[in-house]
Queue: 4 jobs
Job 1
Amino acid sequence: MRPSSLRRSCAALAAVTSLALTVTACGGTTKNDVKDAASAATSAQKADPKAELKKGLTVGFLPKQVNNPYFTSADRGGAKALAELGETYKEVGPSSATDTSGQVSYVNTLTQQQVDAIAVSAQDPGALCTALKQAMRNGIKIVTYDSDTKPDCRDAFVSQAAAEDLGRTQVQLLAQQIGYQGEIAVLSAAQTATNQNTWIGFMKDELKDPKYKNIKLVKVAYGNDDAQQSFQQTQGLLQEYPDLKGIVSPTTVGIKAAAQYLSGSKYRGKVRLTGLGTPNDLRTYIKNGTIDAFELWDPAKLGDLAARTAVALSSGQITGRQGETFTAGGTEYTLGKDGVINLGRPTVFDAENIDQFDF
């Protein structure tokens, strides 16, 4: 048995003993005993911000899609942080951004491998819950990053930025570009993507402001974070709404595909495009006038913070409760409601600053 597994087993047994249950050996426990022990240990746990970071931990990263450039950048950030902290990095994941069942099986695999923590970007808010709760019962710390699951299915969520800021600022960018007038559409990822739906909700709320009275959201289309589907959805939007003035795409795959279509069409410079993208993907389209400005956080920093959060949880510096603080990479972070940790405000990229970034 690995040392970390032994510690988890003994901690669970100690929690049961302290509650005066009649378990006398690990071999005599039932599934309910193990569940009760894990629950008791979690409820009794207190954060110790001065605790030393443990060494030799294994943190498994599970992105939505392993061959997605965005997640490649994010997970490299996580790998670098873990190497710096003396931990082991492991990555698994599906090749499709809509393979929810695949994500479940990968969680189960990481649980069986007895990793110390899992950092996962959830494809669906509820589909992973059963598997994640099983991992938690086995003493594994769960951090979601980029896209959250339900709060009771993880210990903490590392958010790219405040969801409200991301939703509202994308509308604000597009509104400025189209002069606050005309029809607009949203090109999203999967219809079940937690982060996408949250941002779109704030977009719709932002559009209720009287200053947007002459802007009409005509459709939310879904490209499933697939380049070809997103390209086709962009083409379909312009065929269905020939007077469309702008598209906002809160997904790196979607905005790049939309830019590719617009750049080679009669709509370049006429239909404005903004959303969330990476400088390396969109540099060409900024310079040829397809895109005026877009925004994003640094995904490598997101992966870095997810990794450091996982280690802080595994070391007992934080437990996931609101108000707890910890230092990661020289910056102090405070956990908000439901254990949410915000990376910071997004960066706006345009022709003046895009060459300063390389990701």
Job 2
Amino acid sequence: MKTPAQTAHATPFRVAVVGAGPSGCYAAQALRKGQPDIEIAVFDSLPTPFGLVRYGIAPDHQGAKAVSRQFERVFGQPGVEFVGNVSIGIDIGFESLLENFHAVVLATGLGADRQLDIDLDPDARVVGAGDLVRLLNSDPDARLRHRRAGLESLGAEVVILGTGNVAVDVARLLSKSDLDFIASDVDDDALRAVAPSPVRTIHILGRCQSHLAKWDASMVKELAQVVGVQVSVDGTPLLREPARSPRTTVNVRFQQVPTSIRRHDGRIRVTTHRTGDRDLVDHLDADTVITALGFDSSSAQLAQFAGLEASNVFRVGGPATGRLGNLAENRKLAADTAKGVLAFLRGQEPRHRPGLDGLRSRLPASTVSFQAWQRIDDAEIRRARPDRCRTKFTTRDGLLAAAAGSDALPPIPLATAGPPATQEK
């Protein structure tokens, strides 16, 4: 008698992955490696795949973004489909996935920056680091892009709360000159709106002691090596030969616990106390506060899936851990999840599930396939501004027009916001 695994070719397993970010793509990759004939449909609410690889990794870190080439090879395989611009729970009900697939993997990520739980003036200018990075990466859904007041300059002096890699990313992006973004895919218009020139002073505040900071030492070294940037940690310059007349000064201070953020004399005052000593209070004034404290694991994005505990529903990445790890962590967790999915499937009696074919008639007309994504990709590379590797579309309409192969794509003017910042010698 044949086992379920032996009958896989006659009755292929069909798996839906909700989320085409790194965790979802790594999960699809691992599933195909473990069971080459498995059929996979990867859904995403955005018209583009790759999630935080495209919109979360800093735009000047193209080497890290190159992991998307691995994922492209997965989507290029027969039996693996990208289903973009489709929201599960809105366009397609979750129950429909359970009816049409043998298993479902939730890889939706975490979309919202973690909120501060301190005394916070509602009129104070506080920006989430994740929101800012997504804006500079041309995410069409970036919250800052859709502010009623429009994009505003962050000012000459900012405070960043948090000592992880995202905090360093933000400090680096805000302190670079135009020449430092050569070969990147930064959204020049957004960057020049929020930082018309490199920010003059950046304060990075962390609650922990310096040796407990969550950032990679290489990231801090990279920041310190940006021409025209001087970094000090608790008052001590990080490099032996600090920059002369630095364009941007980055002051890192540890053991600073924020207690309030209030408007003060037209600016923003951050009040902190020393870790372990509430009587040692300090005040720091700036134009904007940027929070880099991680992401919210209780967001509405995950709430719709909170009660789904069926045996054939699996979670990976943010929905599983409540945090966004780096690419290496995502890959390992996805591989472990894929093993669990395959063990579950192979332990079941083979049952017919139509997979994506059972849903095609219900998919929106604006659904984006992988082939349509490739048209977007080609169009963004063709329209690249000088010294940029691509210029992304910043609206869903632009993305969908490119996906359809439209000849009437929105024009891309040269970025203009005054003279570009010069590179110091």
Job 3
Amino acid sequence: MLDANAQRNDAALKTETVTRASHLPVDHPPLKRAKTGVLLANLGTPDGYDYWSMRRYLNEFLSDRRVIDYSPWIWQPLLQLIILSKRPFSSGAAYKSIWNEEAGESPLMTITKAQTSKIAAAMKARHGDDVMVDFCMRYGNPSTPAKVREMTEAGCRRILFFPLYPQYAGATTATANDQFFRSLLDLKWQPPVRTVPAYFDRPSYIDALAQSVERAYGKMDQKPDILVCSYHGVPKRYLMEGDPYHCQCQKTTRLLKERLGWGDDKIITTFQSRFGPEEWLKPYTVEEVAALAKAGKKRIAVIAPAFSADCIETLEEINEEIRESFEHAGGEDFTYIPCLNDDDAHIAALAEAIDENLKGWID
């Protein structure tokens, strides 16, 4: 909490800004009332599922050295000449199968807008007009630089940046932060900034996950034999180089298991979305669900705790490709438990993290 003197100084600063405005030269740029910005960030989405929209999006995503760290001399010719000539078609078909045609956007965009709206309402209820909430995407639109510029032009003199990834990874949280910090390079007046750390072990987040499992299981006549916690994969090499993602995923599963009061035989951790020739974190979800079916686990549920919002990796990969692998191996009952999305318990957990990181700025 700010002490009484600091609170008076802050109030005086706001008053001084308004008072001084009347004494500024007539040609002085107008000054907006100072406020604090909260900028949420997610991975991104193509503008459409046509070839060129997909190519632009994939090119930005797969050119990120945090995502693919091979030498550009080797990777870029392969990417530009081979991968981007074919992959936009297959990825476009996948996006088309889940596209929100009514809104003309991907589900990730629809859900992120809903999350932002609810968090903005929560911040307004607590802080009035002192906090501005918006969102950006690491890849695609709305871009991080555009939203940082909008916030500063709207009068945000401090910005809290919140990558919506429960677990930290260099290929997700770090690259989002990189882009945010790069966005500050073009500003004449840089605001003080903070970033929200990973929230994989936050009790309110774990409780929100557990509630979503309990709701799903409560609707079933027959409970699944096992719950598969499927996290987005990264190369195993990243773990060996010090990335904490694998450990944070494992801890999320353990905390969820403890919150549910389950034994080790009721829940497992797996990793999906393998790309390229090298070894990634194991076990691979697509292979593990088939092995479970062959071992007699005919009913399974899958949840994706690494994703704050449903997207191509959950709605298409889990609910289609991974489901198909399970059923082809003899599985009978496959349940996908949606991401937390704009669930009220999830929004409360995110708002809690925001308020903790606003301390000293707004109290």
Job 4
Amino acid sequence: MSLFTLDKIGPWLTPLLLCAGAQAHSPYLKPNTFSAEEQRKQVTVEASFAEGDLRPDVAMKSDAFHVIGPDGRKLALTPAAALKEATYLEVPLGAGNGTYLVSSGVRKGRLAKGVLRDGKVHFAERAEDTQPDDKPIEVQSITRADVYVSRGRPSAADFDTDGVGIYPVTQPYDLYAGAPVIVRVRDSRQPLAGETVTVIADGQNYVSHKQAEQDFTTNAAGEVSFKPKTAGLYLLQVRVRRASADNPALWISTTATLTIEVQPQP
């Protein structure tokens, strides 16, 4: 599996990704359309990190960009343009009509120093912030960003994926304001219970009554359900932290996101 090291996008970003708050920089993919007409042969996807609204701030780089077509075939993607604040992908829709998964793939970041306190990972910037019972650990950051787009008539979106990801149980082309949206957090198709999914509404810089971020906890099936108040783009984010299977002093912190488009009620 091809992994990209985050030192190429700035050493300051890794600590932000490891922070608990969703207001840290989040990875995202944003296509120029979620529903392409049948005659359209490609879509353009913006890949970046943002804080709050989906405005590019730090370009996302990855050796693992790819698209999976409705035929289940995986195609590696090479960026068409790589700028300082955003990377742009031209994603071919050559598998015909149906739904495609565009992904950054699994991206490996730097190691960070942390402590284990009461079974949870903490990051102490100063020595005086530590407590006597803290256990020093190292934390490896992993990120993944996904988005689904359709060409012509959509198809079921259920693809095999590696690592932690957010899977849309409610099909991504069938999301409406005020209606339930169900997603499942899974690790290589296995559901993850007890994880927190944060829902972030885009475009809050332009509204007088802002939508606060919402947190939901996955059930035994790894699922959460929420009702988006308004049409627009939403970023769903989960952060999963686990001790390494072969090294208890090394923890893996995986941040996965899914960008969705919510339509107005018909």
